Structure formats: structure tokens, C-alpha cells
User: What shape does this take?
Amino acid sequence: MNDTIKLYRGEVFDFTDSPLDRSDAFRYFPDGALVVKEGIIIDCGPFKELEDRYAGCERIDYSGKLIMPGFIDSHIHYPQAEIIGMYGKQLLEWLNDYTFPAEQAFSSPEHAERIARFFVQELFRNGTTTCMAYATVHAASVNALFSVASEYNMCMMTGKVLMDRNAPDGLTDTAVRGEVESRSLIEAWHKKGRNRYVITPRFAISCSNEQLKAAGRLHEQYPDTYIQTHLSENKEEICNTLSLCPGCRDYLEVYERAGLVTDRSVFGHCIHLSDSECRRLAEAGSVIAHCPTSNLFLGSGLYDMRQANRIGMQTTLATDVGAGTSYSLLRTMGESYKVQQLNGYPMSVLESFYKCTLGAAKALHLEDETGSFEKGRKADFIVLDYAATPSQQIRREYLERNGKWELENKLFGLQTLGDDRNIVATYIMGKRM
Ligand SMILES: [Zn+2]
Assistant: This one.
């Protein structure tokens, strides 16, 4: 019996709730087991309790390593894979000088396929099992990413970028064409397998009011699609937006007028919001994707996590590659900690891990599918080595010697010193990538 069941032994950790709401919001089994049947989690608990119950099934031993849900990256641009780490510009120049030229190549399906494959494999190498990604204006870029993700049964959320102004000719559509193409991509991909369609007006500077309204109409017609865009990333961007939309009292209102501020909307950055904008985002149940490596790299500013938490805004952590400088959500958590330190908020390691796993799954309405080890969830999980480098190893030995080799110190070491080198294995629906 049990030959389709696999038991993974190791240190098992997941969240059951938000650590901001309760101190016992997580499960941690130092000698634990995760049990998977046909890609689905069927059990999780102490190894001693589960070893008899699943006697005879295949065992995979990751003792001493951490088994946790895969990371969810809620804001990333796959067509920017080639232009990561380009020197010296702030947002608007960076888009014109680096991003737009790179995105033009995605009119070629072959190029899109090649970069999509690189991108998905790079996510796996970094322990990311779900992402919400921007494609480009070209339908081919969306087809490529959904196709590649489908080969791996990965939960992929993406959509065609809408841009009908302030971009080079090869990268613009029109309000009508953007709507027509988005609709046919929704029909082709949304909820096919694990794919989800994300209606993607890039940001207000590159979308006319007609285009934003068309995006809102599409979401109304397909209410279980998602919306992603950028909001209040950079001060020059905010000034330009308000001069392009003279009737609006603030940036958020541009999106509100188009029906784009919903509980399925993910706004990248949100660094320079007014109190009123924060409250309206919280009331709408919208999600803010905080992208610390990008915000530091482009000099955009410091997101105020404490204020967001106080007002009740849902925040997730995200990489924003290619302005973000790493695919690793470990690195991203480490940088988020530093950004919050500059704000006088030493964010807890549990809060940051939550915002890359169950917190992100809940924010994206995926908690019935991924983000934790609840029974019935898809087996999207990762295995981490706490001490993949000499520096991590000597830190570990010090903590062990002093009786402090405990969960929060372990996680904080991963967050501060960790990266792709700490990812031992990435599983999607129980299959090792
Ligand atoms: Zn972005």
C-alpha cells in the first residue's frame, strides 16, 4: 500500500494565521513530517506520530533542514530578466533607457519562450513556487509564460501589459486593442490548470483614461481575474500622473475612477501615499506589494510597513525584478528588514516570512490552494539548508553552543544571510523541480 504516498522528514514549519494577530500563528515541528499524496498535502505533524500511520510509504529524509511552503512573489517583471542590475537611474529614466528597449523584443514568440523558461527556472532555484508577474504588451509574452508554467503545474498569475501612451511605438496598444487582446487571453488561460489572469495596466502615465476604464470593465466582466499596476513609487511619477489626470485629487483616485481598486487588485510600491489613500486601499481590501530591493536600487523611497499594518492595509513582499536586484525572497526579506529599520520599525522575522507565504496566499485569494501545509493544499514546498555558507555555519555553531539555536534565530539567519544557495529543493505539487 501507500506507494503513491511520500513522507518528507525534516524541520517542518508553516503559518496557520497572521503572526501580527496572534503569537501562536505558526506550527513548527523540529522533527516533523510532511505527507504528500499525488501532489496534495494529506498530513503534517511530528515525525514520531506520523511514521506508523504512513509505514511502508516512500520516505525522503531532509533531517536538519527546513521544510516550509514555497515563496509567493507578488510583483515581478519577467521580461526584465536581461536588464537586472543596470546602473544609475531613477524610475522614469530607467523605464525609458533599459526597460522599454528590452520589452520590445517580446514581439518574438521565440524570445518570449526563451526568457519565460529562464525566468521560471530561476524562480524555482530561489524557492519561489507562485508568482504574479508582468508580461509585456505583446500577447505572445503572456502565452509564453503561461505555457512554460503549465508544463510544471505551477500557479502562475500574469497578464498582458496595457500601455496606450508615453511609450515607444513598438510597445503601445490602444484602449480597444488592449481590451480585445486581454479578453481573448482571459478566455484562453484564466483558470486553465493553475493559471490566473491578471489585468495589467502598467501605470497611469502609460494608460489613457479610456484604457483604464476598459481595464475596469474587463474586471467587471470577469470578476475573478486579478488586477495589477504600480502606485506611488516615485515622486516625479506622482507629479506626472496628476498633471495627466487633472480632475483627480490624488494618484489613487485615477484608478478608483476606473473601477480598478478592488480586493483583487495588487498595487506595486505605494511608498508616498497620503493617509486618505492608505485608508481607501485598506477599505477596498487591496493588496500592496512592497519591493524593498527595487525601492532601494532606484532610490524610490522607504515603504512604511508599520503605518500600513496600523491602518489595516494588506502588504506582501515582492522582488520587482528587474528593478529589484534579486529573485530571492530571502534577500528581499533581509532588505525589507533594513528599510523598516530606517523607519524605526524592527519588523519581526515571523512577519516577513508570513508576508511571503500564507499572508501572500490570503491576500491573493489562494489560501485554499497554496501557502501552508493544511490538508488538501497543493504540495508546493521548499527545503532549506540553514548553513549553506561558512558565515552561516559559524553563526549556527555559536548559537548552538549558547543554547540559542531556535526557530526565530534560524529564520532570521536565513533572511539576513541567505539566498539561492540555501534552497536545497523546490517542489511543485509534490514534484521536485
Ligand atoms: Zn514593477
Q: What stands out?
A: The chain has two domains: 5-70+372-432, 71-363.
